[in-house]
Amino acid sequence: MTEPGSGGTRRLATILFADVAGYSRLMRADEEQTLTDLRAHLAELVTPVVDRFHGRIVKTVGDGVMAEFGSAVEAVCSAVEMQRGMAERNAGKPVDRQQSFRIGLHLGDVIHSDQDVFGDTVNVAARLQALAEPGAIVLSASVHEQVRDKLSMTFRDLGARTLKNIDRPVRAFALDSETPMRRGRRRGLLAGLAAAIVLAFAGTFLALRWTEAPKHIAAATNGQSVAVLLFANQSGDAAQDYFADGLTEDITRALGRFKQLTVLAYGAVLPYRGRHLPPMDMGHALNARYLVGGSVRRAGEQVRVTVQLTDASNGTQLWAEQYDEQFTDIFQLQDKIARKVAGMLATNLQQIALQQSLKKPTSNLAAYDLLLRARAEANETTRAGNRMAREMLEKVVAMQPNYADAQAELADATFQRAAYGWSEFADQDIETAIRLAQKALETDDESALAHSVLARAYTVQQRYDLALAESERALQINPSDADVQATRAAVLLWTGEIDGSIAAGELAMRLNANVGPEHALNLGIAYLLRKRFADAVKLLENARIRYPAYPTLDFPLAGAYAELGRDAEAADALERGKTKDPYQDLAGFGTRFRDPALKRQLDQTMRKAGLN
After folding, report:
1. pTM (two decimals)
2. CA distance linking residue 103 with residue 99, whole number of Å
3. C-alpha to C-alpha distance for 591 and 29, rounded to whole angstroms
4. I want to staple 392 with a disulfide (CB 3.0 to 4.6 A). Which of 62, 359, 374, 609 is the partner?
């Protein structure tokens, strides 16, 4: 977007730039349908919303829309309504037809010429759009300054960001597209509480699913079924029933995103309102193995939510938690639940699931139990464990050729073999991993693991657009999956979005503190690039203790020590790394970066540590 040489008039304006996330992937899948859907979104949603908030659509280019507003407040309100409208339009559509906008806004001086708009303000808005996640809004400090005291919205400071072809850093703020302009306070609070509790249960249910055979292998079973019972309103005010009922419905809907679970519909539990049956009887009546229940007590601006998870097969309460928060702290509550419960509980229950599997006689192992054992071997992150995992998974695939989870696990183990330096034919293994992941998706297009393997493998091959598309798809399937977030962090790291990589990486750690060494390595490198050397040391020291055989963690740790002036520790870490991986050198370290400048920055740190 260039500035015209003459004939333009200047004025102050807020520019909104919207772009469809993953548009190239959608076009490859179905070009005609994608264009039809986009045109409908523009005509039926975008244009009316811009008009309603007194804006003007300047142009549409491909999948991008640029609009101009005289008011920053109205521009932000328009962006929020667009995102809300897109979410509603996507509801009920197949995932492969859903379109999501990224939106960027900037306020500044613009030049008008022949109904078009030019200038640095336009360029900054376009670059801010690229920072946004699908469905999200990013605005500059100039917009934030105008709206922060006028709109009841929550903004997250992203700090000063370096934008492509912009000669100065721009301070940016992110706005959650689901929380602002909410339909009354109730919906925002319910969504926040639901997200919080779903994060708490995410790790639990992911672990519990491993105790039962998957539906396409086992005969008819209710081993994976979950019923979210109606939360009890203990506020003493019948008018607050809506709060408890809405919370129940939101949790039910969110848990349904875990494809491994059979979650009973909200309507299925409605007939059991007020019926206090023993857990085993309730489970039998609903044909559900696990029951989620709880209560809500509201007093003024305080809310207490109590949640329990019960194994209905024997009436045992597996987990319970209580949350006390003010309404204004709802997102802090979400973060606290994710950090405190999801990661730790998932790890513990996964171990229980493995122990249950190990009790079974080896001669009687079914495909799912063999997959469980293979996963445990792969998680050891050793050459021998990886080999055993692949051998077991090959047996599973031979037993059940259409078992998508096994194909995806085998793809993951094969990729790890190449990525961890355990293969003499790394390029061939990467290709094999891609083929296996694609085969898994032929059976189950919603295999988050298969999409994640493809994202990481394409990154190694420097096919960055494909890697981004696959990581976005995995994120759409289940954003509460720690491994999905770790994959997203990896792809963003190597494509140069360092701050986004750190955000996704830290979320993965909150969801599961025991995600693997590859993730710790990637997050450690991202910390180095952002000069967060103390954070890198803390992360990498812990990871090295947990994964002593992993060959690469010592190198970025040595770099972090060197940057902090801890030269003796840097030398020791480098020596350990060379012992495990004697062929590692500066030229081969961090070679996946799309931007050579990031490689050069990392090289400077590693030279300080003595790597050459």
Report:
1. 0.55
2. 13
3. 31
4. 374
